[in-house]
Amino acid sequence: MYNYKKILLTTAATLVLASSVAAADKLKIGTEGAYPPFNLIAADGQVGGFDVEIAQALCAKMHAECEVVTSDWDGIIPALNAKKFDFLVASMSITEERQQAVDFTAPYYTNKLQFIAPKGGDFKTDKASLKGKVIGAQRATIAGTWLEDNLDGVVDIKLYDTQENAYLDLTSGRLDGVLADTFVNWEWLKSDAGKPFEFKGEPVFDNDKIGIAVRKDDPLRDKLNIALKAVVADGTYKQINDKYFPFSIY
Question: In the CATH scheme, what is the code of domain 4-110+209-244?
Answer without folding.
Answer: 3.40.190.10
